[in-house]
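User: quick one
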Amino acid sequence: MELLIVILVVLAVLLVGGFFFLRNGRSTHAPTIEPSALDSRDAELEQIDLGSGDLDADGVLVDRTVDEAAAELDVDEPMEEPEPATFRDRLGRARSAMAGYLGSVISRGDANAETWEELEEALVRADVGVAATMEILETVRNRAQEEGIKDGAAIIELVKDEMKARLGGQDISLAEGGDPSVWLFVGVNGVGKTTTIGKIATREVAAGKNLVLAAGDTFRAAAAEQLTMWGDRSGAHVVRGAEGGDPSSVIFDAVEHAAAAGADVVLADTAGRLHTKTNLMNELSKVRRVAEKGAGTVTETLLVIDATTGQNGLVQAREFTQAADLTGVVLTKLDGSAKGGIVVAVQNELGIPVKLVGLGEGPHDLIPFDADEFVDALFS
Amino acid sequence: MFDTLTDRFDGIFGRLRGKGKLSEQDVDEALREIRLALLEADVNFEVVKSLVSRIRDRAVGDELSKALNPGQQIVKIVLEELTESLGGEAMQVTFSSKPPTIVLMAGLQGSGKTTNSAKLANLFKSQGRNPLLVGADLQRPAAVEQLRTLGRQIDVPVFSEASDPVSVAKASLEEAKRLGRDVIICDTAGRLAIDEELMEEVRKISEVLDPQYTFLVVDAMTGQDAVTVAESFHNTLALDGVILTKLDGDARGGAALSVKEVVGRPIAFASTGEKLEDFEVFHPDRLASRILGMGDIETLIEKAEAAYEEEEAEEAAQRLMEGTFTLDDFLHQMKQIRKMGPLGNLLGMMPGMPKEVRDVEIEDSQINRLEAIILSMTMEERTKPEIIDGSRRNRIAKGCGMKPQDVSALVTQFSEMKKMMKQLGVQPKKAKAKKGGKKGKKGRRGGGRTTPKGNAPLVDPSAVLAEGVEEFQGLRLPGLPGGDE
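Assistant: Done. Structure below.
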């Protein structure tokens, strides 16, 4: 009878809460959060001046007023065709944290206990995570034993092979087939969702696709402006609502607009949200449901993860996939010193493939994920 | 759910029970678990090494050998070392006698510089200062627009112009003078530590501004790379402190510890929510128990505060302990508590919860069923469940689509639980009595066993732990046998 446990928990939480309310008057503490904190986003946003905008024919707010300063810098940027980024030249800039360990493993020659310890440290240093690291090394250790491989350098190759095998062989294309298709971008705050959409838009429009961008981040100040600038740069139409409005309805409108205009794909932005906020995660589930209410089909739900993310990335992936059925991961900011090893853990535990990688700030710095190059770069 | 360090220790020390003294080997085993826990919390590898060796030194000394409960003792040592490493003292921001006081914000992309610039301005404003926000992030599209919007929300002027970041910084000094602002907070573009060009730019901004405070904004979710980043920024800018953001998630925040250890600068502020007021002076002790994945009673309380009507929760807790708690109260409280997140997570935050209880997977559907039963009762039945006879029971069961036995089970268990709570209730009542009779809205606060608040370490975490065990052991014993039925 598990009801009992539930009762127990509710009472226990209440009791703990109650005890501490009684014990520690928290009046001197930081501003207390309003009980209705769950709706606070709406409340807070009422104060925001929505800025100037014009209603276009569809009754959708189309804002062309952007901050002059930023506009001047960005909009007239020459759009020549730069070479697409590659892993090697981007990642070559930062010496991998692994290098030291690997050098030591190789110079030792035949492997001993220390070799395995160093390999473990090397992988953990790259944010691969303790569990995934142990699993990978266990497999490699068995294989090395079976095949009688003792040399350090050869063992490193085995580790690389094992990781490539785990990460590779996935379908990393972005699925279409909806009429229109909806690609939904989700993730915690500040990982680069809006920028990723901007880059994909630039690429897809250049490839001749007809795109609509949906400014579903109605929470962060000026998120819609940011997306609009990307729309201007790439030539994709942007559908936006009022700041603080309902993201589901913005995305729904965008899908309707895309259907009417015969567009192929809707790239839907969402507000960054921490996966621990139940209400915001529920909101996301709703966004995903509502996106399919009209003509559209959600063919991709992509979790955007920042390469600097540590072990929390795994928890993020787990929660986001529960709320919105992830189809893939976009790993951003891989051009820094962080190596994004967390995607190994994500792939390992949840089987969600990495589809795209962000290697820089330019529109052409978002490239398809390549397991071989990724692992090589990790070990470089 | 995460294995907490305490769980792991329970495992190790369970086997050692009866051994009078821990051998070095036993300690090694414990240290290995500590190492893993720290790594899983994203504490940097080097930092973990030095921490573990410090803990070992203390643990193999006589400090431990005499301890009655070596497991608890080790946890205590670890907590102390972590708290120490995180910096015991809170950082004090003092304002320059010759205004303006200048603050420079720097960090990677997406760490939260713009939002936290505004949060800092809001904090200074509430301290009676007149800040000026400066938008020197001309890189990210609409970053200045974002800062302007935030500035409007907190009623703080924002300065920026369409030139280059260094000129904006320079011009902002004049602007502050013109507007009579006494604090300048300069937001800068996110940049990678290895981007030499942009690092040079921020160095120039720093040269022009000559800031009193340079803060590195660090995302609590950052992994092992945090150290590399902090070192590069420190080398370029000479940091004064760190602002730790997104601490309202469930990231353990080990990166913060690493940064503190490596650059030796304190964590000054922590951002704990999306609202502009969710910004506070940093509490090292809280983060210490969080990194270890131990019960995080502070966060639990914060969540409770967010979800609860304080008054109401207090009254409910009161009624609970007096034994006048009804099923309707229960229903209501359950709804409130569900707002705090999945029950399983809450359970994990409670220190000292027995492992058996903590590991139970609680499905939403179970709670829905429970709710359905109570909702199918009349108000009278909820207040006086003893009037539920056979016919009422059948009606309720039909109403919620469950079996009559389920209804009985709920009623019996609820009343048993109520009895138990009443017994427990004796203790806190004493504490309450001390507070004196006035129970006005404010009188309630700061009574009994309060530790002084403010930026204070709330309670010694290990004390909470021990206390928690005591409190919940009472709960668990009569409860669990029922759970096996």
